[in-house]
Amino acid sequence: MFGKGQGMTMGTFDTLLLAFDMDQRVDEAQSFWNMILHTHERSISRRLFSRMISIYAHHNMPHHIIEVFADMEELGVKPDEDTTRKVARAFKNVGETEKQQLVLDKYLSEWKYIHFKGERVRVRRKYSWNDD
Q1: Class of the 10-124 domain?
Q2: Where are the PPR repeats (predicted)?
């Protein structure tokens, strides 16, 4: 399918990375990620970055998480809350607590949104970053 130029979408890439993760084939996921990164450099979605960080977090590879996060920042892609927490945990595991705090302060806002009685409500976030 890829050979004929069909199906080369970010959704297909995400599904393939998930399949590699479920099959415990991290090395193949890593080589596929490098292909995506070099081929589609400026158009990689936040979802793909999050998927790759999740794969590395699942397999306890904090140095790789930090590398993917560096690429993410370089391309100007803002991480979601779960990805931010995984990156902060990776910095903590590596022993760089000051960078952990910088990431949390930069990407986790003071407010978050929850759903309460069918409505979206804005609430102040508690500052308990160490509750991983």
Answers
A1: mainly alpha
A2: 45-79
